[in-house]
Design brief:
This protein has 5 helices and no strands. The protein is globular. The mean pLDDT is 90. The protein has helices at 3-11, 19-26, 32-49, 53-60, 74-94.
Length: 95
């Protein structure tokens, strides 16, 4: 397993891997369907224009600047998943 290669592969996805996290963040201020529709639209722009989803989102809504950095953080995802992975691995080891 090559951690650097994995990170590079995730980065090459233009932030689309974070679309669900972005929709959840936006749904704090609007209904879930509207948040998902925005992210879907922004994702399409990101793909079409070969831009990062974060850049597209901030261009569409400048007020998001500085508020969504953690949404696009691989370290944040790893931190959130670590307890789940540890529990899963412990169960496998016991089992």
């Amino acid at each position: 397993m090559n951690a650097e290669r994995m990170r590079a592969n995730l980065e090459s996805l233009q932030g689309l891997v974070f679309s669900e996290r972005l929709a959840r963040r936006l749904s704090r201020d609007t209904d879930r369907a509207s948040a998902q529709a925005l992210v879907d639209d922004w994702s399409a722009v990101a793909v079409k224009e070969r831009r990062h989803l974060k850049d597209v989102a901030i261009a569409a809504r400048p007020s998001l600047a500085g508020q969504i950095d953690d949404v696009f953080s691989l370290d944040a995802i790893v931190g959130e998943l670590a307890p789940v992975l540890e529990e899963t691995l412990a169960g496998i080891a016991e089992g």
